[in-house]
Design the sequence.
């Protein structure tokens, strides 16, 4: 009695198995990516963010300004689009503020999805918020986003009276690549110390892209998702460091290597169904590094939640920002 699969020989059977594998994993990947975009659509309150901006504009309270001076922008054209947007709370509970850093893989900045809606939600909680549009894509260069963040915070410090805020116990809120930016900036290298700024009071991270150099070490059972990981890891490093130094760049963007005992308290969340930035090779690894160094932190991981959900409305992660703000207030 012969097993049907091997009826035409072992070689043909192996070919059939490989073909079925490629087809099934491709279908699963397409489904996972489509599912991600669906949850991005329902999880990010894009309309709410836009409405809050229009409300502030109508009242003459929305402030948008370039981070760099005219001289700096004339000298370096890539700095021309770096801008800071201020979302003041109607009744601020104090002078603290949060700097929101959207993601985008250092290829672009997801302001509408992970910037404005988060700032609007913070305003509802009585918290002043800033959103930074940092250099990305062809405007990027080595550690340019960190430089943009440092100079943006300096600008806030210089105009603290106008904004009615203080850098005492400020928070950085970063998503995906914005989490990479916030994570590195909060360390001793390429961060706040280079700009004579106070250390962030709390770092809040959503599905952070932290272990950039680790894509080859992850045991991807799905080759298509593996290719997505390779593309993402190399894309961010390419834009920041160029093709010649892409490998070195991946190493330099590995946030875990910058963690020390005096790292700020961290609140972090991620999802188990993240095909772009797998929690097992990013948030989980970052969580282990924080634990090893004795850094106070909270890590929430949600089953079945994908990448790019921002506020996480209509997902298992909904309400994470409330808990993150509570964590910030206690520290």
Sequence:
């Amino acid at each position: 009695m012969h097993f049907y699969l091997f009826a035409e020989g072992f070689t043909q059977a192996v070919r059939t198995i490989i073909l079925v594998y490629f087809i099934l994993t491709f279908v699963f990947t397409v489904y996972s990516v489509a599912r991600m975009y669906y949850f991005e659509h329902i999880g990010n309150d894009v309309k709410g963010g836009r409405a809050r901006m229009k409300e502030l504009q109508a009242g003459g309270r929305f402030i948008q300004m370039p981070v760099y001076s005219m001289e700096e922008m004339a000298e370096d054209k890539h700095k021309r689009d770096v801008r800071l947007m201020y979302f003041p709370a109607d009744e601020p509970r104090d002078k603290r503020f949060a700097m929101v850093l959207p993601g985008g893989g250092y290829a672009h900045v997801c302001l509408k999805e992970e910037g404005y809606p988060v700032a609007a939600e913070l305003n509802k909680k009585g918290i002043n918020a800033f959103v930074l549009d940092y250099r990305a894509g062809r405007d990027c260069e080595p550690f340019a986003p960190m430089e943009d963040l440092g100079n943006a915070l300096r600008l806030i410090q210089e105009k603290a009276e106008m904004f009615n805020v203080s850098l005492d116990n400020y928070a950085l809120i970063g998503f995906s690549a914005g989490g990479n930016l916030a994570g590195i900036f909060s360390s001793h290298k390429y961060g706040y110390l280079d700009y004579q700024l106070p250390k962030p009071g709390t770092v809040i991270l959503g599905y952070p892209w932290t272990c950039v150099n680790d894509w080859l070490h992850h045991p991807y059972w799905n080759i298509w998702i593996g290719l997505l990981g390779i593309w993402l890891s190399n894309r961010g490093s390419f834009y920041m460091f160029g093709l010649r130094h892409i490998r070195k760049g991946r190493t330099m963007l590995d946030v875990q290597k910058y963690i020390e005992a005096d790292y700020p308290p961290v609140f972090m969340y991620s999802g188990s169904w993240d095909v772009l930035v797998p929690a097992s090779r990013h948030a989980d690894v970052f969580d282990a590094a924080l634990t090893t160094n004795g850094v106070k932190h909270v890590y929430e991981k949600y089953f079945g939640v994908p990448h790019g959900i921002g506020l996480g409305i209509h997902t298992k992660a909904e309400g994470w920002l409330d808990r993150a703000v509570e964590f910030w207030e206690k520290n």
Summary: The chain has a mean pLDDT of 90.
